[in-house]
Design a protein that fits this description.
By secondary structure, this protein is an alpha/beta fold. The protein has two domains: about 210 residues, P-loop containing nucleotide triphosphate hydrolases (Rossmann fold); about 70 residues, Alpha-Beta Plaits (2-Layer Sandwich). The chain has eleven helices and 13 strands. A hairpin with a 2-residue loop joins β1 and β2. It comes from Phytoactinopolyspora alkaliphila. Keywords: Antibiotic resistance, ATP-binding, Cell membrane, Membrane, Nucleotide-binding, Translocase, Transport. One of its GO terms (biological process) is response to antibiotic.
Length: about 300
Protein backbone atom coordinates (compact mmCIF):
# COMPACT_ATOMS: atom_id res chain seq x y z
CA UNK A 1 0.00 0.00 0.00
CA UNK A 2 1.33 3.44 -0.92
CA UNK A 3 2.56 5.70 1.88
CA UNK A 4 1.52 8.80 -0.09
CA UNK A 5 -1.66 10.59 1.08
CA UNK A 6 -4.86 9.21 -0.44
CA UNK A 7 -6.30 12.73 -0.40
CA UNK A 8 -4.37 15.97 0.03
CA UNK A 9 -6.28 19.25 0.34
CA UNK A 10 -4.26 22.45 0.55
CA UNK A 11 -5.90 25.82 1.18
CA UNK A 12 -9.20 24.85 -0.48
CA UNK A 13 -11.57 27.74 -1.18
CA UNK A 14 -15.06 27.37 -2.64
CA UNK A 15 -17.59 30.19 -3.03
CA UNK A 16 -21.22 30.30 -4.09
CA UNK A 17 -21.92 33.85 -5.21
CA UNK A 18 -21.01 36.08 -2.27
CA UNK A 19 -20.96 33.22 0.25
CA UNK A 20 -17.75 31.38 1.10
CA UNK A 21 -18.56 27.74 1.79
CA UNK A 22 -14.96 26.56 2.27
CA UNK A 23 -12.36 29.06 3.48
CA UNK A 24 -8.77 27.89 3.04
CA UNK A 25 -9.23 24.36 4.35
CA UNK A 26 -6.28 21.95 4.44
CA UNK A 27 -6.52 18.23 5.22
CA UNK A 28 -4.51 15.08 4.58
CA UNK A 29 -6.24 11.69 4.44
CA UNK A 30 -4.05 8.68 5.17
CA UNK A 31 -4.23 5.68 2.82
CA UNK A 32 -5.98 2.52 4.00
CA UNK A 33 -7.79 4.31 6.83
CA UNK A 34 -11.34 5.41 7.62
CA UNK A 35 -11.62 9.20 7.90
CA UNK A 36 -14.87 10.65 9.23
CA UNK A 37 -15.72 14.28 8.40
CA UNK A 38 -17.93 15.93 11.03
CA UNK A 39 -19.49 19.36 11.04
CA UNK A 40 -22.76 21.21 11.66
CA UNK A 41 -25.14 21.74 8.74
CA UNK A 42 -23.65 24.31 6.40
CA UNK A 43 -20.13 23.86 7.74
CA UNK A 44 -18.71 23.02 4.30
CA UNK A 45 -18.06 19.31 4.70
CA UNK A 46 -20.17 18.16 1.72
CA UNK A 47 -18.72 20.88 -0.53
CA UNK A 48 -15.21 19.82 0.49
CA UNK A 49 -15.90 16.20 -0.40
CA UNK A 50 -17.59 17.20 -3.68
CA UNK A 51 -14.41 19.05 -4.66
CA UNK A 52 -12.48 15.83 -4.00
CA UNK A 53 -14.96 13.84 -6.09
CA UNK A 54 -14.62 16.25 -9.00
CA UNK A 55 -18.22 17.50 -8.83
CA UNK A 56 -17.14 20.99 -7.76
CA UNK A 57 -14.23 23.03 -9.09
CA UNK A 58 -12.26 24.85 -6.37
CA UNK A 59 -12.04 28.64 -6.46
CA UNK A 60 -8.69 28.50 -4.69
CA UNK A 61 -6.17 26.06 -3.28
CA UNK A 62 -5.55 22.56 -4.58
CA UNK A 63 -6.97 19.05 -4.22
CA UNK A 64 -5.12 15.84 -5.04
CA UNK A 65 -6.83 12.44 -4.96
CA UNK A 66 -4.57 9.40 -5.25
CA UNK A 67 -1.95 11.88 -6.44
CA UNK A 68 -4.15 13.18 -9.27
CA UNK A 69 -6.28 16.23 -9.98
CA UNK A 70 -10.02 15.32 -9.69
CA UNK A 71 -10.89 17.46 -12.74
CA UNK A 72 -7.94 17.18 -15.07
CA UNK A 73 -7.41 13.48 -14.36
CA UNK A 74 -11.06 12.47 -13.98
CA UNK A 75 -10.87 9.74 -16.63
CA UNK A 76 -7.93 8.09 -14.89
CA UNK A 77 -9.46 8.43 -11.41
CA UNK A 78 -12.96 7.20 -12.22
CA UNK A 79 -12.16 3.44 -12.18
CA UNK A 80 -10.20 3.81 -8.92
CA UNK A 81 -12.69 5.81 -6.84
CA UNK A 82 -16.18 4.95 -5.58
CA UNK A 83 -18.72 7.65 -4.74
CA UNK A 84 -21.92 7.40 -2.72
CA UNK A 85 -24.07 10.53 -2.86
CA UNK A 86 -26.47 11.54 -0.10
CA UNK A 87 -29.87 9.84 0.10
CA UNK A 88 -29.21 7.60 -2.88
CA UNK A 89 -29.02 10.48 -5.36
CA UNK A 90 -28.05 9.53 -8.91
CA UNK A 91 -29.78 6.14 -8.99
CA UNK A 92 -31.96 5.36 -12.03
CA UNK A 93 -35.60 5.39 -10.76
CA UNK A 94 -36.77 2.59 -13.08
CA UNK A 95 -33.80 0.28 -12.56
CA UNK A 96 -33.83 -2.71 -10.23
CA UNK A 97 -30.95 -3.25 -7.77
CA UNK A 98 -29.61 -6.46 -9.31
CA UNK A 99 -29.73 -5.23 -12.91
CA UNK A 100 -28.22 -1.87 -11.93
CA UNK A 101 -25.32 -3.50 -10.08
CA UNK A 102 -24.79 -6.01 -12.92
CA UNK A 103 -24.69 -3.14 -15.42
CA UNK A 104 -22.18 -1.18 -13.34
CA UNK A 105 -20.01 -4.25 -12.75
CA UNK A 106 -19.48 -4.63 -16.50
CA UNK A 107 -17.71 -1.25 -16.53
CA UNK A 108 -14.87 -2.40 -14.29
CA UNK A 109 -11.97 -4.79 -14.85
CA UNK A 110 -12.24 -6.60 -11.49
CA UNK A 111 -15.65 -5.87 -9.94
CA UNK A 112 -17.04 -7.37 -6.78
CA UNK A 113 -19.56 -10.16 -7.25
CA UNK A 114 -23.06 -8.68 -7.50
CA UNK A 115 -24.78 -11.38 -5.47
CA UNK A 116 -22.24 -10.97 -2.68
CA UNK A 117 -22.93 -7.24 -2.46
CA UNK A 118 -26.68 -7.85 -2.41
CA UNK A 119 -26.24 -10.33 0.44
CA UNK A 120 -23.84 -8.11 2.41
CA UNK A 121 -26.22 -5.15 2.30
CA UNK A 122 -29.48 -7.02 2.86
CA UNK A 123 -30.98 -6.23 -0.55
CA UNK A 124 -32.03 -9.76 -1.52
CA UNK A 125 -35.74 -9.07 -0.78
CA UNK A 126 -35.64 -5.90 -2.89
CA UNK A 127 -33.31 -6.92 -5.71
CA UNK A 128 -36.11 -6.89 -8.32
CA UNK A 129 -37.96 -3.83 -6.99
CA UNK A 130 -37.62 -0.59 -9.03
CA UNK A 131 -35.49 2.05 -7.31
CA UNK A 132 -38.43 4.48 -7.16
CA UNK A 133 -40.30 1.97 -4.96
CA UNK A 134 -37.45 1.27 -2.56
CA UNK A 135 -37.54 2.62 0.99
CA UNK A 136 -35.08 5.32 2.00
CA UNK A 137 -32.90 2.80 3.80
CA UNK A 138 -32.91 0.44 0.81
CA UNK A 139 -31.84 3.25 -1.51
CA UNK A 140 -29.01 4.09 0.89
CA UNK A 141 -27.79 0.50 0.83
CA UNK A 142 -28.07 0.29 -2.96
CA UNK A 143 -26.11 3.55 -3.34
CA UNK A 144 -23.40 2.09 -1.10
CA UNK A 145 -23.33 -1.09 -3.21
CA UNK A 146 -22.96 1.00 -6.39
CA UNK A 147 -20.01 2.83 -4.83
CA UNK A 148 -18.28 -0.45 -3.97
CA UNK A 149 -19.04 -2.67 -6.97
CA UNK A 150 -15.97 -1.51 -8.92
CA UNK A 151 -13.62 -2.58 -6.12
CA UNK A 152 -12.29 0.98 -5.59
CA UNK A 153 -9.02 1.98 -3.94
CA UNK A 154 -10.77 4.96 -2.36
CA UNK A 155 -14.43 5.49 -1.59
CA UNK A 156 -16.30 8.69 -0.65
CA UNK A 157 -19.49 8.07 1.32
CA UNK A 158 -22.02 10.79 2.17
CA UNK A 159 -24.04 9.78 5.23
CA UNK A 160 -23.79 6.02 4.48
CA UNK A 161 -25.97 4.87 7.40
CA UNK A 162 -28.63 7.59 7.20
CA UNK A 163 -32.12 6.10 7.34
CA UNK A 164 -31.06 2.51 8.06
CA UNK A 165 -32.05 0.51 11.13
CA UNK A 166 -29.56 -0.14 13.98
CA UNK A 167 -28.85 -3.74 12.91
CA UNK A 168 -28.02 -2.71 9.32
CA UNK A 169 -25.98 0.23 10.61
CA UNK A 170 -23.75 -2.22 12.46
CA UNK A 171 -23.53 -4.42 9.37
CA UNK A 172 -22.38 -1.41 7.34
CA UNK A 173 -19.82 -0.57 10.04
CA UNK A 174 -18.51 -4.13 9.77
CA UNK A 175 -18.34 -3.83 5.97
CA UNK A 176 -16.40 -0.57 6.19
CA UNK A 177 -14.00 -2.16 8.66
CA UNK A 178 -13.50 -5.03 6.21
CA UNK A 179 -12.78 -2.55 3.41
CA UNK A 180 -10.12 -0.95 5.59
CA UNK A 181 -8.62 -4.37 6.31
CA UNK A 182 -8.43 -4.89 2.53
CA UNK A 183 -6.49 -1.64 2.13
CA UNK A 184 -9.35 0.55 0.87
CA UNK A 185 -9.34 4.19 1.96
CA UNK A 186 -12.76 5.35 3.21
CA UNK A 187 -13.79 9.00 3.56
CA UNK A 188 -17.27 9.49 5.01
CA UNK A 189 -19.37 12.40 6.14
CA UNK A 190 -21.67 11.59 9.01
CA UNK A 191 -24.08 13.23 11.42
CA UNK A 192 -23.60 10.37 13.89
CA UNK A 193 -20.82 11.25 16.32
CA UNK A 194 -20.93 7.77 17.85
CA UNK A 195 -20.36 6.37 14.35
CA UNK A 196 -17.22 8.44 13.92
CA UNK A 197 -16.02 7.49 17.41
CA UNK A 198 -16.71 3.82 16.77
CA UNK A 199 -15.16 3.16 13.34
CA UNK A 200 -12.95 6.09 12.28
CA UNK A 201 -9.16 6.07 12.43
CA UNK A 202 -9.14 9.81 11.82
CA UNK A 203 -11.80 12.45 12.51
CA UNK A 204 -11.82 15.86 10.82
CA UNK A 205 -14.11 18.48 12.38
CA UNK A 206 -15.11 21.30 10.02
CA UNK A 207 -16.91 24.51 10.99
CA UNK A 208 -17.56 27.67 8.97
CA UNK A 209 -15.58 26.25 6.06
CA UNK A 210 -12.43 25.65 8.10
CA UNK A 211 -10.79 22.63 9.63
CA UNK A 212 -10.94 23.19 13.41
CA UNK A 213 -9.52 19.85 14.58
CA UNK A 214 -8.21 16.56 13.25
CA UNK A 215 -6.87 13.42 14.87
CA UNK A 216 -7.91 9.99 16.02
CA UNK A 217 -10.93 9.81 18.35
CA UNK A 218 -8.54 8.96 21.20
CA UNK A 219 -6.32 11.96 20.42
CA UNK A 220 -9.25 14.37 20.19
CA UNK A 221 -10.75 13.22 23.48
CA UNK A 222 -7.43 12.89 25.29
CA UNK A 223 -7.43 15.35 28.18
CA UNK A 224 -7.01 15.61 31.89
CA UNK A 225 -10.61 16.73 31.92
CA UNK A 226 -13.44 14.46 32.91
CA UNK A 227 -17.15 15.10 33.13
CA UNK A 228 -19.98 14.96 35.63
CA UNK A 229 -23.38 14.43 34.03
CA UNK A 230 -26.77 14.46 35.71
CA UNK A 231 -30.44 14.95 34.90
CA UNK A 232 -32.94 17.27 36.54
CA UNK A 233 -35.65 19.78 35.69
CA UNK A 234 -35.05 21.50 32.33
CA UNK A 235 -33.77 25.06 31.93
CA UNK A 236 -32.13 25.41 35.34
CA UNK A 237 -30.34 28.72 35.91
CA UNK A 238 -26.72 27.53 35.88
CA UNK A 239 -25.03 30.89 36.42
CA UNK A 240 -24.53 30.42 40.18
CA UNK A 241 -23.21 26.89 39.66
CA UNK A 242 -20.76 28.22 37.08
CA UNK A 243 -19.59 30.86 39.55
CA UNK A 244 -19.03 28.24 42.25
CA UNK A 245 -16.98 25.91 40.04
CA UNK A 246 -13.19 26.14 39.59
CA UNK A 247 -12.01 28.43 36.74
CA UNK A 248 -11.18 25.47 34.45
CA UNK A 249 -14.65 23.93 34.72
CA UNK A 250 -17.69 24.69 32.56
CA UNK A 251 -21.32 23.68 32.91
CA UNK A 252 -24.04 23.56 30.26
CA UNK A 253 -27.41 21.99 29.51
CA UNK A 254 -26.69 19.59 26.63
CA UNK A 255 -30.36 18.67 26.14
CA UNK A 256 -33.53 19.60 28.02
CA UNK A 257 -33.00 18.38 31.58
CA UNK A 258 -29.51 16.93 30.90
CA UNK A 259 -26.52 18.73 32.39
CA UNK A 260 -22.79 18.35 31.95
CA UNK A 261 -19.92 19.73 34.02
CA UNK A 262 -16.51 19.43 32.31
CA UNK A 263 -13.22 20.04 34.05
CA UNK A 264 -10.81 18.41 36.44
CA UNK A 265 -13.19 16.15 38.32
CA UNK A 266 -12.13 15.59 41.92
CA UNK A 267 -13.98 15.22 45.25
CA UNK A 268 -14.13 19.02 45.70
CA UNK A 269 -15.80 19.59 42.32
CA UNK A 270 -18.27 16.78 42.94
CA UNK A 271 -19.09 18.23 46.37
CA UNK A 272 -19.66 21.68 44.78
CA UNK A 273 -22.15 20.21 42.30
CA UNK A 274 -23.95 18.27 45.03
CA UNK A 275 -24.12 21.33 47.34
CA UNK A 276 -25.48 23.53 44.56
CA UNK A 277 -28.16 20.93 43.74
CA UNK A 278 -29.15 20.71 47.41
CA UNK A 279 -29.34 24.51 47.74
CA UNK A 280 -31.60 24.70 44.68
CA UNK A 281 -33.80 21.72 45.64
CA UNK A 282 -32.57 19.70 42.65
CA UNK A 283 -32.27 15.93 42.93
CA UNK A 284 -29.40 15.04 40.52
CA UNK A 285 -30.67 11.83 38.93
CA UNK A 286 -28.55 9.56 36.73
CA UNK A 287 -25.37 11.19 38.05
CA UNK A 288 -22.37 9.84 36.16
CA UNK A 289 -18.64 10.56 36.11
CA UNK A 290 -16.87 9.88 32.82
CA UNK A 291 -14.25 11.03 30.36
CA UNK A 292 -14.74 13.73 27.75
CA UNK A 293 -16.53 12.33 24.70
CA UNK A 294 -16.15 13.19 21.03
CA UNK A 295 -19.50 14.96 21.27
CA UNK A 296 -18.10 17.15 24.07
CA UNK A 297 -15.15 18.05 21.85
CA UNK A 298 -17.48 18.77 18.92
CA UNK A 299 -19.63 21.09 21.03
CA UNK A 300 -16.61 22.93 22.43
CA UNK A 301 -15.16 23.51 18.95
CA UNK A 302 -18.33 24.43 17.07
CA UNK A 303 -20.54 25.81 19.82
CA UNK A 304 -23.50 24.04 18.27
CA UNK A 305 -25.34 20.80 18.70
CA UNK A 306 -24.83 18.30 15.89
CA UNK A 307 -27.88 18.27 13.64
Amino acid sequence: MSSSPAVEIDGLVKRYGGRTAVAGLSLVVSPGAITAVLGPNGAGKTTTVECCEGYRRPDGGSVRVLGLDPHRDARELRPRVGVMLQEGAGLYPGARPRELLTHLARMYAHPLETGQLIEWLGLHDAERTPVRRLSGGERQRLALACALVGRPELVFLDEPTSGVDPAMRRSIWDLLSQLRADGVTVVLTTHLIDEAERIADQVAIIDDGRLVATGSPAELTSSDESTVQFTGPPRLNLSTLGDALPPDAVVRETAPGRYLVAGTVNPQLLATVASWCAAHDVLPEELQIGRRSLEDVFLELTGRRHA
